[in-house]
């Protein structure tokens, strides 16, 4: 419970610091968190290795995963580890969030074969080999 409250406070602080004027459901398969647009269906793209995750988000576009936002291939990307932490703190706004690990785009600096992820069941931040199959939760800028 303390971790959830801390996550919410961190999220609110980051959004306030970014000057975010609005956050919420856009009604087109996306949710806005500050200056970030996030795919509402957090489980749509399933689990894949990191390299495949990078590739598939580049193909994501309107009509995939319940999107009706007129997005095109190339608009979406994996979130950074910081963005993924904000998404964890705001996960109640999304659907199909799995209590599992989600890839970030952030590579572990001590070993380029590793990348950072957030475990959505408890908010832990860790890194593992890019060959592991973790969930994908794309984002794009407004």
Protein architecture, described:
The chain contains three helices and nine strands; from the N terminus they run H-E-E-E-E-H-H-E-E-E-E-E. By secondary structure, the protein is of the alpha+beta class. The strands form three sheets. A four-stranded antiparallel beta sheet has the order 1-2-3-9, covered by helices on one side. The longest helix has 16 residues. The N and C termini lie far apart (31 Å). About 9% of the residues have low confidence.
If you compute it from the alpha carbons, what radius of gyration comes out, rounded to the nearest whole angstrom? Answer: 14 Å
Which structural class should the secondary elements be placed in? alpha+beta
* Low-pLDDT windows of residues: 4-9, 15-21
Order of strands in the sheet with the most strands? 1-2-3-9
Give a quick account of the main beta sheet: strands, pairing sense, barrel closure.
4 strands, antiparallel
Task: Let me know the number of strands.
Answer: 9
Total number of helical segments?
A: 3
Counting copies of identical and different chains, the oligomeric state is single chain
Report how far the terminal alpha carbons are from each other.
31 Å
Q: What order do the helices and strands follow?
A: HEEEEHHEEEEE
Provide the residue-averaged pLDDT: 88
Name some characteristics of this structure:
single chain; 142 residues; alpha+beta; four-stranded antiparallel beta sheet; three-stranded antiparallel beta sheet; 3 helices; 9 strands; 25% strand; globular
């Amino acid at each position: 419970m303390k971790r959830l409250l801390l996550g919410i406070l961190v999220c609110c602080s980051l959004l306030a610091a970014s000057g975010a004027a609005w956050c919420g459901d856009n009604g087109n398969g996306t949710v806005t968190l500050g200056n970030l647009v996030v795919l509402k269906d957090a489980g749509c793209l399933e689990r894949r290795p990191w390299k495949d995750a990078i590739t598939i988000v580049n193909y994501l576009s309107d009509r995939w995963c319940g999107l009706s936002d007129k997005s095109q291939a190339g608009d979406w990307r994996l979130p950074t580890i910081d963005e993924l932490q904000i998404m964890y703190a705001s996960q109640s706004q999304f659907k199909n969030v799995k209590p599992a690990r989600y890839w970030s785009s952030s590579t572990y600096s001590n070993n380029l074969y590793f990348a950072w992820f957030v475990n959505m069941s408890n908010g832990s931040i860790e890194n593992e080999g890019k060959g592991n199959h973790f969930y994908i939760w794309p984002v794009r800028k407004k």
